[in-house]
Amino acid sequence: MAHVEVGGLLRRAQAAGGFGTVLRKGDPERGTLVLVIVERGEHRAILERRLQADWTYRWSVVGPNVGDSREAAQHLARARDQDPDCWFIELDVPSSERFIAETTAEG
Fold first, then answer.
1. What is the pLDDT of residue 13?
2. What is the 3-state secondary structure (H, E, C) of 17-84?
3. Is pLDDT of 15 > 80?
4. Which Pfam families does the UniProt record give (predicted)?
């Protein structure tokens, strides 16, 4: 249930002192979730939840380097073309490195 997870991610960003917005709505039940992590409006990372070899899903850092918002936009365009059901959620959070580390460690 992608739409439920999106709501949880938005609340998590808010609880961390940031905010989030849905840039693109995907399929409400099964769409892939792509997180665009920014800190004070500057691109930090793109996270995507991917299926692992052990059949569990984990968040992985994908896409361009820190600060390259043009390349990030290109990456998102490619992701949209490959999966029209995907969601793009932008989370502007303080301590983005910590947020990314916690998210990728949780799975």
1. 94
2. CCEEEEEECCCCCCCCEEEEEEECCEEEEEEEEEECCCCCEEEEEECCCCCCHHHHHHHHHHHHHHCC
3. yes
4. DUF1491
81: containing domain? 2-106
Q: How many domains does the chain divide into?
A: 1
H or E element: which one contains 4? helix 2-15
Q: What is the pTM of this model?
A: 0.86
Q: Do 76 and 88 meet the contact criterion of CB atoms below 8 Å apart? A: yes
CA 76 to chain CA centroid, Å, is 10
Q: Find out whether 94 and 16 touch, Cβ atoms under 8 Å.
A: yes
Which tens digits make up the pLDDT trace of 39-72? 998 889 899 888 889 998 888 888 766 676 778 8
